[in-house]
Amino acid sequence: MKHKPNILLIGFHNSLNIDSMTQIAFKNCNTGQEAIELLIDENFDLIISKYQLDDQNAIELNQSVKSVKNYCANTIPKNNKLLIITTNPEEEQLCKDNKTLFFPEKLNLKSLILKLIDLPREIKRGDQKIAIINFKDLFKRVDNNREFIQTVIEKFFEIWKSRIDDIQTPLNNGEFKLAKDAAHKLKGVLANFSMEAARTTIIELEKHILDNDQELSVQKLNQLIADIENTHKFYLDNQDQFKS
C-alpha cells in the first residue's frame, strides 16, 4: 500500500479547495499555537502556512517548528518541511533572509502540493531508487519460505530498539569502536531482511562513526530510526506479499 501523505494547513480558514485531493490526508488549524500542539503529537510530510497567522507570523512559527524538531530528535524525529505562502515581495524577502521555503500566493498551490508530495512506493536516495523492502530478493534468499521469514521479521520488529540502543549508548559516550561494531551487526540483519533503505542509511552511519564524527553520526542514527519505523509500516501495509 502506498503511503498516504499527511499535510498540515495553517491559517487558510478552509479557503483552499482540496476536495478532489483524496489521495492526501489534510489537517487544518488557524494559529501557530494550534499547529505546534499538532506537530508534537503527529508527523506531517509537509506544513503549509499563511505568512500572517492570527497569533504570529510564519517566521516566528518556523522557529517553533525547529524547536519541536530538536525536542523530538532523540525520540520520534520530525522530518517535516515548512512552506510559507507569501502575498507580497516584502514577505518573500523576509523568507529569503530567514532561509525559509516560500511560495507566492498567486501561483498554483494545488499543483505544487501534488508535485511536492508525489511519494512513490519506493523511496529515493539521490538519483537511485532504493526499495524499502526488496521482497523479490528476500523471498529468493529463503527459498520462498514466506511463513518462516515473516515470523523472523516480526521478532526483529519486537527488539529493534534495543539494537539501536547498542549503537546509541556507546556513541553518546564517544566509544566509537563499540558503536561501529553494533552498527555493523545491525547492518547484517537489515541486509538479511532486504531492508534496503535502512541498510543504505546504516552504511552511511558506519562511515561517520569511523570518522569519529559524533554530530553527523547522531543525525544519521536518527534517520536510521525513522527509516526502520517507515520499514515497519511498509511491512504491515504489505502483508499480502507473505501469502504463498
From TrEMBL:
The record's section on Gene3D superfamilies has: HPT domain (1.20.120.160)
Location of the HPt domain: 145-242
A Gene Ontology annotation in the biological process aspect, one of them, is: phosphorelay signal transduction system
Offer an example of a GO molecular function term for this protein: protein kinase activity
- InterPro entries recorded for this chain? HPT_dom_sf (IPR036641), Sig_transdc_His_kin_Hpt_dom (IPR008207)
Q: Which residues carry this modification: Phosphohistidine?
A: H184
The answer to whether keyword Phosphoprotein applies is yes
- Please identify the protein, giving its name as recorded: HPt domain-containing protein
The source organism is Labilibaculum euxinus
